[in-house]
Amino acid sequence: MKTLLLLPLVALLSLPLAAEQVVVPVGQQAAEKQALQRPARGISKDKVREQFGEPLSMQGAVGEPPISSWEYADFLVYFEHDLVLHSVLKRAEQPSAETP
Known about the structure:
The chain contains 2 helices and 4 strands, in the order ααββββ. The protein is α+β, with helices and mostly antiparallel strands. The radius of gyration is 24 Å and the shape is elongated.
């Protein structure tokens, strides 16, 4: 009797599970913004402010070495101490599924 009850459970567990996975290669992310000028590695915060203006927001330093970030309209800039460590494009906003 127990075998008859376990048989459907075993059958369910052996079915393959499927999920949709969308992979966008890094080179294609924000493709329309790839040519956008961003701060180069190694320049100072003062130079970034001079070239790109005031950031929309600034996150304080965290960790050791201290890493901080500034947000601009199209990209984020990460600093180690006072120098640009890296700048990254913001992900393009996806159209909302709730369109009237």
